[in-house]
């Protein structure tokens, strides 16, 4: 029987009210009436969501409603109802299973109901037997997170799927205890959140509502766009509502900035300011005695620093030991996991941990050596908005070097690196956990010259056009670290294949003859790669002259760490900002000895591109029997704004052109 819109709305309303506790546990809260009413209203609009209206979409989020109730303790009860209409077979396949993640150590989760709105055929209730509670796939971090997984009955274009969930607590491990105590955030009495109002599907309507006690006013700001908002109240509560309608799907691009830096975003917190959060993070770890050391740690510190004369030498030696000896593997210590650093004694014994524990090990050793050091919270890969909400995903070390001066160390990102603070983290926001309380700060950007790549190429062309060449490769800071890691984390037998791939960019006929690489573990000396290779018939030789492309112009090194800028730069246009691993400076110099004296009949025109984001200078000259080529490419910023893409595109396009344009030499 085909239902009218009115009949469908009535049945939806009846079902929502009568089954608000369908899969609920005995102690669960009922769904807020506001959520029930909104879900009923959204179901009446399904017929208006069509392929003609959304021709590029496989599915559309018709309604996404979140309602949060915050208790005096800071414990939050989160209700969410999400209705998605399927438009294509691909969309049906993508929603054949639904997943809802949680961490049982700190959060409680329920799937309240799963409904399939069949096109013209009413609703189908997905039984509770189709909801599975399983361990999440885990790698490197083993803290016991779980997921609710729902097998959805076969969907067809025109159907809609509705998921209603309830949770309380947080998705990172907090304090354990009886009843609801373990779900209360460690900053007791406070609430904070960061909410994105865009995704990979179009959104018709998205609402976020939070209700707090009247004595807990919240600070809220909107970034990357605009939201509608409303503040209401009753005798006991403040109710904040934020919403956005008709949001297009995000357009993905290579190397785009994090979603949180481009999507409309709401950040809110009851915490007063950053110093308050800084002091809390300091106290929670000091109270846990996270940085106490024992005799074994003290002896190891003495062993590592023995014979070293300066503080800088000692600190770098301790950094190197921690970065290399504490492997990245997260195991739960139980109480306090997720925000408390593992005790240094535990990490020293286990020889493993995640970033916070690796940082904690270095702090412990610094303190054992007589230095003052604190943990610091950062957000690797994205910015932190100036509002004291939890916006962090990484932990590092702040060493006090003066009354108000600190030096940052990151043992997680600096194994086998000459850097103590990776250029991949310049610029980056951070907050130091100190007893006085610190403001949000940002590291300065790294100049491109720090992250240089220099290739000095020499070679000889014989009378038959055969090339015998040598390349000496050196680098600095982040670029050097990438080259070191390419050696350290690759089995020795696979090394020739990597270098053969490099010389193959010169020519598919290139043959690796020999190579020498300095010790990658010795970060106190420059890292040097020397490659000898040969290419039979590289140059086209005739009675009238020679034609060739200078080998150094062939982009010998192309990998995700060193040349991550190439793919986004080659696009004709750009919508979003580009996020690179670091700034760059490429200096490519070559001297090629010719089999006789020639004159330069034709060569690529000299290039001089300069702008706010990138610059390139290229030239080819002939001095006697020496053909000299030079390219100087500079990528000036780690984050390239979309409006600066034209300058980057121009520089890289000219850089690419050099790899194909021939030099003609006449007798």
In short:
The protein is an alpha+beta fold and 667 residues long.
How would you describe this protein?
The protein is an alpha+beta fold. The chain has three domains: 5-270, Immunoglobulin-like (Sandwich); 276-442, C8orf32 fold (Roll), CATH 3.10.620.30; 449-666, Jelly Rolls (Sandwich), CATH 2.60.120. It is built from twelve helices and 37 strands. The protein has an eight-stranded mixed sheet. Helix 1 (5-18) runs antiparallel to helix 2 and helix 7 (344-350) crosses helix 8 (355-368). The longest helix has 15 residues, at 311-325.
- The CATH topology name of the largest domain reads Immunoglobulin-like
The overall average pLDDT, rounded, is: 91
Helix content: 10-25%
What is the number of helical segments per DSSP (H or I, 4+ residues)? 12
Largest sheet: 8 strands, mixed
Instruction: Look at the structure and give the CATH class of the largest domain.
Output: Mainly Beta
Beta content comes to 25-35%
| Broad structural category | alpha+beta
Tell the overall outline.
globular
Strand arrangement within the widest β-sheet reads 5-4-9-2-1-11-14-13
The unreliable regions are: 1-20, 172-178
CATH architecture of the largest domain: Sandwich
C-alpha Rg (nearest Å): 30 Å
Compute the number of strand runs.
Answer: 37
Domain count, please report it: 3
């Amino acid at each position: 029987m085909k239902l009218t819109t009115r009949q469908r709305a009535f049945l939806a309303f009846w079902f929502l009210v009568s089954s608000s506790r369908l899969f609920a546990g005995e102690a669960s809260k009922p769904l807020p009436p506001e959520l029930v009413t909104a879900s009923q209203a959204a179901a009446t609009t399904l017929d208006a969501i069509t392929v003609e209206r959304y021709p590029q979409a496989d599915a559309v989020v018709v309604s996404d409603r979140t309602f949060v109730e915050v208790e005096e303790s800071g414990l939050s009860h989160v209700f969410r109802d999400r209705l998605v209409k399927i438009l294509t077979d691909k969309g049906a396949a993508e929603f054949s299973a639904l997943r809802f993640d949680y961490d049982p150590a700190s959060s409680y989760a329920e799937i309240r109901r799963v409904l399939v709105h069949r096109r013209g055929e009413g609703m189908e209730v997905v039984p509770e037997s189709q909801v599975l509670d399983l361990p999440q796939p885990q790698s490197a971090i083993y803290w016991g997170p779980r997921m609710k997984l729902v097998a959805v009955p076969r969907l067809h274009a025109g159907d809609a799927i509705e998921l209603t969930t309830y949770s309380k607590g947080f998705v990172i491990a907090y304090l354990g205890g009886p009843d609801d105590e373990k779900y209360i955030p460690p900053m007791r009495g406070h609430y904070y959140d960061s909410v994105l109002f865009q995704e990979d599907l179009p959104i018709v309507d998205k609402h976020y509502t939070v209700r707090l006690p009247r004595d807990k006013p919240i600070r809220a700001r909107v970034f990357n766009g605009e939201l509608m908002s409303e503040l209401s109240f009753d005798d006991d509560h403040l109710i904040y509502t934020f919403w956005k309608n008709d949001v297009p799907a995000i357009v993905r691009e290579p190397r785009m900035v994090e979603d949180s830096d481009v999507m409309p975003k709401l950040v809110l917190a009851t915490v007063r300011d950053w110093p308050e959060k800084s002091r809390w993070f300091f106290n929670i770890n000091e109270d846990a005695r996270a940085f106490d050391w024992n005799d074994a740690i003290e002896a190891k510190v003495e062993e590592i620093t023995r014979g070293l004369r300066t503080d800088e030498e000692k600190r770098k030696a301790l950094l190197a030991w921690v970065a290399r000896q504490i492997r990245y593997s997260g195991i739960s210590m139980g109480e306090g996991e997720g925000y408390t650093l593992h005790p240094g004694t535990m990490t020293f014994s286990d020889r493993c941990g995640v970033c916070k524990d690796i940082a904690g090990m270095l702090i412990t050793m610094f303190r054992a050596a007589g230095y003052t050091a604190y943990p610091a919270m950062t957000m690797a890969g994205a910015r932190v908005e100036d509002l004291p909400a939890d916006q962090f995903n990484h932990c590092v070390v702040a060493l006090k070097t003066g009354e108000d001066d600190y030096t940052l160390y990151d043992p997680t990102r600096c194994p086998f690196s000459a850097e103590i603070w990776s250029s991949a983290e310049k610029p980056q926001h951070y907050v130091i956990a100190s007893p006085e309380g610190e403001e949000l700060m940002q590291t300065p950007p790294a100049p491109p010259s720090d992250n240089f790549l220099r290739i000095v190429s020499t070679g000889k062309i014989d009378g038959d056009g055969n090339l015998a060449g040598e390349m000496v490769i050196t680098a600095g800071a982040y670029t050097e670290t990438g080259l070191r890691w390419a050696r350290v984390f690759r089995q020795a037998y696979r090394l020739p294949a990597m270098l053969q791939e490099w010389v193959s960019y010169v020519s598919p006929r290139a043959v690796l003859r020999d190579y020498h690489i300095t010790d990658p573990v010795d970060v106190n000396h420059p890292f040097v790669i020397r490659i000898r290779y040969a290419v039979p018939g590289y140059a086209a030789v005739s009675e009238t002259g020679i034609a060739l492309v200078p080998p150094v112009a062939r982009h010998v090194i192309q990998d995700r760490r060193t040349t991550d800028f190439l793919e986004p730069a080659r696009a004709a246009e750009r919508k979003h900002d580009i996020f690179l691993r670091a700034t760059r400076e490429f200096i490519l110099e070559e001297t090629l000895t010719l089999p006789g004296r020639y004159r330069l009949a034709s060569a690529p025109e000299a290039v001089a591109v300069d702008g706010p984001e990138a610059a390139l200078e290229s030239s080819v000259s002939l001095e006697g029997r020496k053909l000299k080529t030079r390219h100087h490419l500079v990528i000036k910023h780690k984050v390239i704004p979309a409006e600066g893409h034209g300058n980057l595109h121009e520089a890289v396009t000219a850089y690419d052109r050099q790899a194909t344009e021939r030099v003609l030499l006449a007798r």
